[in-house]
Amino acid sequence: MNKREFLRTVGGSSLAMMFGPDLLARIAATSPAELAEDEAFWASIRARFTLTPDYINLENGFYCFQPQEVLEAFITNVRGINVEASHYMRTRKDDDKLRVQKRLASLAGCSPGELIITRNTTESLDTVIAGFDWKPGDEAVMANQDYGAMLDMFKLQARRRGMVNRLIDIPMDPKTDAEVVEAYAKALTPATRLLMIPHMVNITGHVLPVRAICDMAHARGVPVMVDGAHAFAHLDYRIPDLGCDYYGASLHKWLATPLGAGILYVRKDRIASLWPIYADASMPDTDIRKLNHTGTHPVHTDLTIERAIDFHETIGSARKEARLRYLQQHWTTKVRGLPKIVMNTPSDPKRTAGIANVGVRRMPPGELAKTLLDRYRVFTVAIDGALVKGVRVTPQVYTSLGELDAFVTALRELAA
Ligand SMILES: Cc1ncc(COP(=O)(O)O)c(C=O)c1O
């Protein structure tokens, strides 16, 4: 590959050309709700992924592999950087990374000065948790349904700094936003310095009323950090509209980038007071890049994010959210309410999108996941916690209704 080809790829030319005029015209002319039911359109999206014939993959929430075009761009970036190596790192890496950061900021709806590219949600949120100047007796509030890595980071701060963690249970099937807001409000005290909430609960798919929770917390002087691991490029929103102070997400889940990409958003006025984990004396305290000194890093991953954004934007956030919710509703409405079926996901479609969780009464989650894979060739993940027992089901834009119907048949047989 010559330099011009490399630059063209790194330059991230739009994937729109690859979708072709017919497909683009169909996307442009159709509302998200209508397009969600257009199986011919989604079949053409499906054709852009290389799928394994071995099983139906309903576990895209951990990591969703890249569409073919994005994978090819990634391989081209790896090859190009392997040729240019240090010369690339010394001459163009910083500008390229800044360009990708700006595209991500635009997708997130925030200013480029409020967002950095990280490796994942863990790095993003742990940077904030460890960056607080915790004093003994300071409190943080979070939920038992939050992700283990962040709960562990808070426990570490408690051991090291003597701060205190208060955990709540998020209502499993709330009928109003107020129910959820109230569950958090009750745990805040005058000593609360930070509230962590998930945008979407990873084990159940529950979408929280983030704006209402932030408004409540801010009225009491408490900043809010949102775990957006499953919301970014899944739901249609702009981070500033949520009203939060800190936001972290992984890009290798719903944006389907190469592994090892994430974002951290810090609201402008919150940057100065955060301590970085890795020091960077070249950056002022008010510059978010002070939190991004991670050393030499696989830069081809960062570069390829542009192609993943191209792919995502060609579908569009609103259309993708509508399709993912449609897929979830397609199977959950067929099994919800059946004897022995336990749904662990809110019944109100407004409180969910693509993710759902289902159990079969008296069947341990591990056995259910194993039986689904061994007998029915359906891959899910078992969730066996105090509050949730079932398998988590995460389709993606390539998932077909036929695959979900096969899953429904399996569930019905197992519950019979
Ligand atoms: C809610 C939530 N937060 C954080 C994470 C961590 O993501 P990562 O491993 O990409 O850092 C996950 C991973 O599944 C998650 O579900």
Task: Walk me through the structure.
It is a single chain. With about 425 residues, this protein is an alpha/beta fold. The protein contains 15 helices and 13 strands. The protein has helices at about 5-10, 15-30, 30-35, 40-45, 70-90, 95-110, 120-130, 150-160, 175-185, 210-220, 240, 300-315, 315-335, 365-375, 400-415; strands spanning about 55, 115-120, 140-145, 165-170, 190-200, 225, 245-250, 260-265, 340-345, 355-360, 380, 380-385, 390-395. The strands form 3 sheets. Strands 2-8-7-6-5-3-4 form a 7-stranded mixed sheet, with helices on both faces. A 4-stranded antiparallel sheet has the order 9-10-13-12, covered by helices on one side. Strands 1-11 form a two-stranded parallel sheet. Strand 3, helix 8 (about 150-160) and strand 4 (about 165-170) form a beta-alpha-beta unit. Helix 1 (about 5-10) packs across helix 5 (about 70-90), helix 6 (about 95-110) packs parallel to helix 12 and helix 13 packs parallel to helix 15 (about 400-415).
List its traits.
416 residues, alpha/beta, 7-stranded mixed beta sheet, 4-stranded antiparallel beta sheet, 45% helix, 13% strand, disordered N terminus, binds pyridoxal-5'-phosphate
